[in-house]
């Protein structure tokens, strides 16, 4: 079975700042992975290095067995990887309907599991706001639209960077419910989130970064069995 993502020995710099320091990171088909670490530890940089948004200064990124190190983002997306960045990336001047429809496409195996109707069933709040402009949505609704748009591309892997950041608890819970549905639908995901309790409830593997290095990789069970690690590495 070929890994969806296999990053090996990744180093990334911003100018003279050495951020990623030899990171190995693998996503196997069907896996849900939690990527954790305190602010500024390199989580977003790792995702951007995988997605070709930032060019790594060393190491390799293989996507489905192909060397895609530093390849343009659209080529990585074309291999079935959908990336939902930190902050919100919707088209504010387009309606909810337009935002969704323009993203629709079949997946890499021709699958069209996530249709417009299914996305609206999953996000009833969006269904009630189809003609609203993107900029008229609340932060939580914008986040749902961003995830809905990613699902419309029928990805094999969905990468969510801080999908619940700044959301009211009820809306955040809604996003977690949707992460569960995504998992059940067979899509792999990488989830970056500050809430380790929610993360470890749905992940198969958790990776913790400290200063651009992987300091822990293991199941949720293994992590729960070592609460001192949570304190040491996440400050909880
Ligand atoms: N474009 C950039 N130019 C220079 N330094 C950057 C840039 N982006 C991030 N950094 C620095 O790189 C380090 C890692 O940042 P990164 O965004 O990867 O952290 P993170 O783990 O995602 O943090 P957070 O939890 O706050 O989102 C930080 O010290 C940050 O200040
Ligand atoms: Mg980040």
Describe it.
There is one protein chain. By secondary structure, this protein is an alpha/beta fold. It has helices spanning 43-50, 73-78, 96-101, 116-122, 124-127, 139-152, 169-184, 196-202, 220-224, 227-234, and strands at 5-14, 17-27, 32-36, 58-63, 66-67, 81-84, 157-161, 188-192, 205-210, 213-218. The radius of gyration is 17 Å and the shape is globular. The protein starts with a strand and ends with a helix. The model has no long low-confidence stretch (mean pLDDT 94). Adenosine-5'-triphosphate binds next to strand 2 and helix 1.
Question: What keyword list fits this structure?
Answer:
single chain; 236 residues; alpha/beta; Rossmann fold; 4-stranded antiparallel sheet; 34% helix; binds adenosine-5'-triphosphate; binds magnesium ion
Show unreliable segments.
none
Tally of helical runs: 10
The N- to C-terminal Cα distance equals 36 Å
Specify Rg, calculated over alpha carbons: 17 Å
Mean pLDDT: 94
């Amino acid at each position: 079975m070929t890994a969806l993502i296999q990053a090996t020995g990744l180093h990334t710099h911003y100018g003279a700042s050495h951020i990623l320091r030899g990171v190995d990171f693998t996503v196997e088909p069907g896996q849900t992975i939690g990527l954790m670490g305190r602010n500024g530890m390199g989580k977003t940089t790792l995702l951007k290095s995988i997605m070709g948004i930032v060019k790594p200064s060393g190491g390799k990124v293989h996507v489905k067995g192909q060397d895609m190190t530093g390849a343009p983002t659209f080529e990585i997306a074309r291999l079935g990887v959908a990336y939902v960045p930190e902050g919100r990336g919707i088209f504010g001047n387009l309606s909810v309907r337009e935002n969704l429809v323009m993203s629709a496409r079949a997946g890499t195996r021709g699958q069209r599991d996530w249709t417009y109707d299914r996305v609206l069933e999953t996000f009833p709040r969006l269904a009630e706001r189809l003609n609203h402009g993107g900029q008229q949505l609340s932060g939580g609704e914008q986040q749902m639209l961003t995830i809905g748009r990613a699902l419309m591309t029928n990805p094999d892997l969905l990468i969510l960077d801080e999908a619940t950041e700044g959301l009211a608890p009820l809306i955040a819970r809604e996003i977690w419910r949707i992460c569960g549905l995504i998992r059940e639908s067979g899509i792999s995901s990488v989830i970056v989130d500050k809430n380790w309790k929610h993360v470890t409830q749905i992940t198969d593997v958790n990776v913790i970064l400290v200063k651009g290095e992987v300091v822990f990789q293991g199941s949720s069970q293994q992590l729960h069995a070592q609460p001192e690690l949570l304190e040491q590495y996440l400050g909880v």
